[in-house]
Amino acid sequence: MGAQEDWILFLEKNPQFYELTKGDFFIQFLEEISKGAKSLDSLKLIFPRVEDSDLKTVIEAFLDLKVVSKIMLGPKAFFGITPAGKRLLSTYNKAKQFFST
Fold first, then answer.
1. Which of 27, 64, 92, 97 is the most buried (most CB within 10 A)?
2. Does residue 101 form part of some domain?
3. pLDDT in tens, 23-54
């Protein structure tokens, strides 16, 4: 099975991820936290054009979908990618060459 078929199968098994993959920001966000857990303050610096409220909404959606985890270090929260998030990102990256034809 090729990357395109893998992607389609992944979305069929995980339809909750479909909306996330329609916009570049969601994938950029996952790619950024896949490099290492980030605090909300760090994410605000990385994505300065995204409103704070929108960033918090995205984080909450990712937490609900279990593609992002929340790690508390003292009073500070950090957000990291989960195995499900890594799988989504990996499958997406393998298939993205087929998205725009």
1. 92
2. no
3. 778 889 999 999 999 999 999 999 999 999 98
For 69, the enclosing helix (H) or strand (E) is strand 68-73
The pTM score is 0.79
| Cα separation, 16 vs 18, whole angstroms | 6
CATH for 62:
1.10.10.10
Domain count, the chain: 1
Q: Does 42 fall in a domain? A: yes
CA atoms of 31 and 38, how far apart (whole Å): 12
Range of the domain at 7: 3-96
Q: Which long-range contacts (CB under 8 A, 24 or more apart) does 11-17 make?
A: 14/88, 16/65, 17/65, 17/67, 17/88
Tell me if 48 sits within 8 A of 66, measured CB to CB: no
- 65 pLDDT more than 60: yes
